[in-house]
Amino acid sequence: MTLSLDTFYLPVALFAFSMSATPGPNNVMLTASGANYGFRRTVPHMLGISSGFLSLIALVAAGLGALFLQYPTLQTALKIAGSAYLLYLGWKIACTAPRRVDADSTDGRPLTYWQAATFQYANPKAWVMAISAVSAFTLTGSDYLLSAIAVSLVCAAVNLPSISLWAGFGVALGRLLRTPRAWRVFNVAMGALTAGCVVLIAFH
């Protein structure tokens, strides 16, 4: 079966954009990183998110998502692990992020590629996106493999430019922060928003 633009690729792309561009743990952290470290130093963070998400979709398509349906305790464990890590990241942003770092400075340290990629496996929103994409858009029978590969690639391709908007938004916000107090308020707010994602996890 041929995968058409209007009945397959466009709906998948729109789904990926709506899920990737809306607020969530990744985008809050990218906003904070863009403001504190600049766009260039946030690129590994963005690439880690997209590649980690791609691998997550691939694993879900291979059958990993079915484990959550068969063993609900795995989902509970994921929520606990994700919540704990989000609280840690929230504390890190609020308490240890620099007050202002120029794009070429070596002070401070944004999230690395591997940290961002690994975080997708503890990010409940990423799991929801992956499971929803695979269940909604893959085809059955002999067309499953081709459609699963297509879904994975389209989602990853749309994800990167979508999340980069948030890093750019952070850069723009950083240019408006003129005083140490303003930076302190900004980082505490970003840390609180990151930690606040735990509430969304608890009620999902």
Short key terms for the protein model shown above:
204 residues; globular
- Which residue ranges are poorly predicted, with pLDDT under 50 across at least 5 consecutive positions? none
Number of strands: 0
The major pleated sheet works out as: none
Percent range for helical residues? over 70%
How would you sum up this structure in a few lines?
This protein has 204 residues and is mainly α. It has helices at residues 5-21, 25-37, 39-70, 72-96, 113-119, 124-137, 144-176, 180-202. The chain is 80% helix and 0% strand.
Structure report:
This protein is an all-alpha fold and 204 residues long. It has one domain. Helix content is 80%, strand content 0%. Helix 2 (25-37) runs antiparallel to helix 8 (180-202), helix 3 (39-70) packs across helix 6 and helix 3 (39-70) crosses helix 7 (144-176). It is globular. The N and C termini lie far apart (36 Å). The mean pLDDT is 83.
